């Protein structure tokens, strides 16, 4: 098997349970590995980190030589895939009702609610002989939290779940014929979801609640107001990013702990290790595996030139296991020091929701850890979601001794 089929093998669904040997193969093959489809894979920590911080590298898909023909120059995109200065403006406006400096206590103030929700979800598992950690715990928690934060009715989850699935599928890194069709249905879903969220925001114009949609639509300063299209894209991004990743962190966390009973026991005895354990999970089993970029110039990466416009795929989960950066990288060590992982990305697109994700993951694992001693995995590996970019189990069936 040659290196130019690595991307196909990495994205092949059969590899979803354990892509890490392929990532090791990628790092062995070189710092930049060109694929038959013209894309370039980067799997080493220092190169990925440098590219995430490089202003000559774009996230905007419209800079690519191979472009989705349905994507127009005029179309409003979410700030996740915009470059500065447009990215900076939108990220700053989206941050105003979420975090410092304008809303410094916003996320922290949710700790109580998150603890309460976690308690209710754990209570719901009591007396169950078997449950699915995803559907019964790891999914409802972040969905409920981001709904409350944005001001989206929780009961509408079946509606936005369908849109969210289509948008996430369209953003996946999967070579192949269906990519154009996935892009079309993803774009359509984004438009419908955006319309739904803007309608919700409009209902609060002049009658603001405590939520972020209210804050966006009632901004008094015209210079700080989002246009209708910007509001739609920002709200879609926050709703999707706010839950599709955290669910994987919690599920990967439980799976990893059940596979490492010694570390589970260590955390049970010393809950002070929990924040470090969450960071280690973001390194060892990160929810986001791949990110796309496009060089704006011919770019020299560790001696290989990647021509302007050719797709770059940063395998951030491989960077997290790079022995050139982490000692004994395939070992899960909740007490690891010097753990500057790439789980939340880096540079100007560093995850906007990281403080919230950390609070949710610590609350979830903190509530579950004392109860995991009496449970076993029904299936190992469990069934995975199709997505190669946002990787995590679709279900995690768990059998209970006594919870
Ligand atoms: C464990 C949970 C999470 C993980 C692993 C995660 C991971 C990431 C990563 C890797 C990026 C960078 C993408 C890139 O550079 O291309 C990112 C960006 C982003 N994340 Fe998260 N995320 C998580 C939770 C959240 C939450 C809870 C929210 C919202 C409240 C959120 C909102 C965002 C947004 C808006 C961006 C785009 C930032 C920008 O482009 O400036 N994320 N996230």
Automatic annotation (TrEMBL):
UniProt lineage: Bacteria, Bacillati, Actinomycetota, Actinomycetes, Streptosporangiales
Pfam families: p450
Name used for this protein in its record: Cytochrome P450
Presence of keyword Secreted: no
Superkingdom of the organism of origin: Bacteria
Molecular-function annotations in GO: heme binding; iron ion binding; monooxygenase activity; oxidoreductase activity, acting on paired donors, with incorporation or reduction of molecular oxygen
Family indicated by similarity: Belongs to the cytochrome P450 family.
Keyword terms: Heme, Iron, Metal-binding, Monooxygenase, Oxidoreductase
Keyword Iron assigned: yes
InterPro entries: Cyt_P450, Cyt_P450_B, Cyt_P450_sf
